[in-house]
Specification:
The chain has helices spanning about 15-20, 70-75, 90-95; strands at about 30-35, 40-45, 45-50, 55-60, 80-85. By secondary structure, the protein is an alpha+beta fold. The longest helix is centred in the C-terminal third of the chain and has 10 residues, at about 90-95.
Length: about 120
């Protein structure tokens, strides 16, 4: 079995190595709602099934410059969220939401980007 010595590569390459080790990599499109009622949807490439009993999935949210991303902040306040799997039909929408943006506001174009209706 091939081995890879991480000490032989600059640390900046580690994310590329980890991401490239799981192919094809599913992408979670996670929608959440913050304390102020503003919806957010964002893609996460570290996403997978964990077990089937109980049915459990996971996704990993990496902080940005030591600050929680909106998804983490929203889920801390409101622990309900929806995980969508990105299909070809959602790929373009997902790419639009992937950019770094200012914190969401009530007028955010991402507010109505959810690919699924809210539960009633």
């Amino acid at each position: 079995m091939p081995e890879f010595d991480t000490s032989a590569v600059e640390r900046s390459w580690w994310p590329k190595l980890v991401v490239g080790s799981v192919v094809p990599r599913p992408i979670a499109f996670v929608s959440s709602v913050g304390r102020n009622g503003v919806a957010n949807i964002a893609p996460f490439s570290f996403f997978n099934g964990v077990c089937y009993h109980p049915p459990t999935i996971m996704f990993s949210v990496q902080d940005r410059n030591g600050e929680l991303k909106d998804t983490s902040r929203n889920i801390e306040v409101n622990p309900e969220f929806i995980v969508h799997v990105v299909s070809e039909e959602l790929a373009e929408r997902m790419n639009v939401t992937a950019g770094i943006t200012a914190r969401m506001s009530a007028n955010s174009p991402r507010r109505d980007s959810s690919p699924c209706p809210e539960r009633g």
